[in-house]
Each structure stands twice: as structure tokens, then as C-alpha cells.
Write a structure and sequence with these properties.
Order of helices and strands: EHEEHEHEEEHEHEHEEHEHEE
Bound molecules: S-adenosyl-L-homocysteine
Largest sheet: 7 strands, mixed
CATH class of the largest domain: Alpha Beta
Strand content: 25-35%
Structural class: alpha/beta
Radius of gyration: 20 Å
Distance between the termini: 78 Å
CATH topology of the largest domain: Rossmann fold
Number of helices: 8
Low-confidence stretches: none
Mean pLDDT: 90
CATH architecture of the largest domain: 3-Layer(aba) Sandwich
Helix content: 25-40%
Length: 295
């Protein structure tokens, strides 16, 4: 008798703890539906997920390439590949997808985790995001940096721009904090579709307009009071001129997705554009620039 092969592989990556966000966000953003994070001991984290067996090789190749570009000099991630039974996986995944307490005021939860199950949270903002194919579940440091600053910055009635909205998480927060209008753009069609769904789920769809594209879609709009962008350095540098153009004099740019090593490049780009007022907020190796444009 021959054994029946599972259609799925179960992959377990052993990742240094401080790289696990990058690895799991890349996987979730670009390659797979979800990951389970387990404690791997000795400052290691296990990032576990399943894949159709026909896609395993290709997916791990892409991950290796991304990993070595992001962390030059690192060796390939340690891994184990096993047969897996989909029914067990789905049970485990639903159990493991957790709510994220971003700050004392902000909770992000999957729809299947009731708020009452999150102990010790008594804040005023609860955002529902189901982990899926768009970036922005609240688990990444840059999203958290942006959320805390957005929470503290928005004044009632302000106009907000969200560049690279992903799951729409930052726009939803801005709307809940009293923004009168939010324009969210993303170059990824899937992010635009997921964003529309998340706007409805969180009952803020009347305040948010979502379009596929980038900053040029805002050039003809009334100026924005605050613009937020959680994007890689290279993208920020390309979009910076437009970001400044679409934001009112004296308005704010909240830019993250940046590493500490990007600090100088961004400072130089700002000075070259006549901008001289900003502060920098840190979380892990990530930074957020909180920029005030000249009045
Ligand atoms: N705002 C979310 C998601 C950030 S991920 C959060 O803070 O968690 C970055 C998003 O930017 C991705 O969804 C990606 O598709 C989008 N993106 C990348 N380059 C872009 C560009 N030039 N203009 C607009 N969106 C872009």
C-alpha cells in the first residue's frame, strides 16, 4: 500500500527574534495567508506556515532572496519541511491569530477574537482587521509607531492622506479619531479591495475614499492637514516632493517604514526641500519622522 501524500507542506523557519517581524510580514504581505509564531528559545522565534507542496520551493527561494537583501551577510534561514494536514493547521491558525494591544488606547483584533477575550484593555479605539493578504495587522513596529503618533496628532475635522494604506489600518484610526475626510491610496489592487472591506467592517466608509495609485492622485485635492506614509525609504524619497505639495503649509508628514540607518538620507532630503522641523520616534530598529512643514 502506498501512503497518500498530503497536498500541503508544513514549513518551520527558525528566525533570530529581531528578524521575525520582517520575515513574517514579508510572508504574509507577499506570499502566504498566515503564519504562526512560536517561541524558539535562545532569542530565536519559529515562524510556521503551510503551503501547497507545489509552491514550497519557489516560495522559499523568494524568501531567501528577500532575506539576504534585507539583511546582507546573513546566512539562509534554518528550516524544516514536513507533510501537513490542512484541518489541523486551520484549527491552530485560528487559535494563534491574536489581537494586538498597540497602546493603552488602541486594540487591533481579528473579527473572530471578541474584545471581551482581551484582558486588561480599556482603551477607546478597537479596530477589526482579519489577517490576510494586505500589510497592516498592527503587529509590525512601523504600523505601531504610526498608530501612536496618528492617535495623538489628529484634531477633529482634519483632512488626512494615507499613502500605501495596505489594510487601511491607519486611515481607519484617523477616521475614528475625528478626521473629517481621509484619502487612502495604494498601488496594490488587492490592498485597495481589502481596504474597502475593512472600511465597511469598521463603519468608517463614509469618511474614507480609497483609490489605486500613489501621491499623484492627491495633487488636485484640497490640501491635507496630515499625511501618513509607512513605506520603504526608496519609495518615500521618490514620493517626497508630491507629499509636500499635497500637504498644507504648517501641516504634518508622518513618515515611517524607515530604519535607523535611513535617518541621514531622509534628513538630507528634507533640508534640500527647505524643511527644517521634525522629531524622530524610535521602536526597535525602526524610526518615524514627525515632520512639520514650513508655515
Ligand atoms: N499603511 C499600512 C501598510 C503599510 S505597507 C501600515 O502602516 O501597516 C506599505 C504599502 O504601501 C503596501 O500595501 C504597498 O502596496 C504600498 N505601496 C508601495 N509603494 C507605494 C507607492 N509608491 N505608492 C502608494 N502605495 C505604495
Amino acid at each position: 500500500m502506498t501512503a497518500i501524500e498530503s497536498p500541503l507542506h508544513f514549513v518551520r523557519l527558525i528566525v533570530p527574534s529581531d528578524h521575525s517581524d520582517i520575515v513574517s510580514d514579508y510572508l504574509i504581505g507577499d506570499l502566504i495567508e498566515g503564519v504562526e509564531i512560536r517561541d524558539g528559545g535562545k532569542s530565536k522565534i519559529e515562524v510556521c506556515f503551510y503551503l501547497p507542496r507545489t509552491e514550497t520551493e519557489n516560495t522559499l527561494e523568494k524568501l531567501d532572496q528577500y532575506y539576504s537583501e534585507f539583511f546582507p551577510g546573513e546566512t539562509q534561514l534554518e528550516r524544516e519541511i514536513a507533510e501537513y494536514d490542512q484541518r489541523d493547521w486551520q484549527k491552530e491558525y485560528l487559535k494563534s491569530a491574536r489581537a494586538v494591544v498597540v497602546s493603552e488606547n488602541i486594540l487591533v483584533r481579528p473579527s473572530w477574537v471578541p474584545r471581551t477575550e482581551v484582558s486588561g484593555f480599556s482603551g477607546d479605539i478597537v479596530i477589526i482587521i482579519d489577517p490576510g493578504m494586505a500589510f497592516g495587522t498592527g503587529a509590525h513596529a512601523t504600523t505601531q509607531l504610526a498608530m501612536v503618533v496618528v492617535y495623538n496628532s489628529i484634531r477633529s475635522g482634519e483632512r488626512v492622506a494615507d499613502i500605501g494604506c495596505g489594510s487601511l489600518i491607519l486611515s481607519i484610526l484617523a477616521a475614528m479619531r475625528g478626521a473629517s475626510f481621509v484619502k487612502a491610496v495604494d498601488i496594490d489592487q488587492l490592498a485597495v479591495e481589502i481596504s474597502a472591506e475593512n472600511a465597511r467592517t469598521n463603519s468608517v466608509n463614509d469618511k474614507i475614499t480609497i483609490e489605486r495609485g500613489s501621491t499623484d492622485l492627491l495633487l488636485d485635492d484640497e490640501p491635507y492637514d496630515i499625511l501618513v506614509g509607512n513605506l520603504l525609504r526608496e519609495i518615500i524619497l521618490v514620493e517626497l516632493d508630491n507629499m509636500i505639495k499635497v500637504t498644507r503649509p504648517g501641516g504634518r508628514l508622518l513618515l515611517t517604514g524607515l530604519l535607523e540607518t535611513d535617518e541621514e538620507a531622509l534628513e538630507e532630503a528634507l533640508r534640500a526641500r527647505g524643511v527644517s522641523e521634525w522629531s524622530i520616534v524610535h521602536q526597535d530598529e525602526w524610526i518615524l519622522f514627525d515632520i512639520v512643514l514650513p508655515a
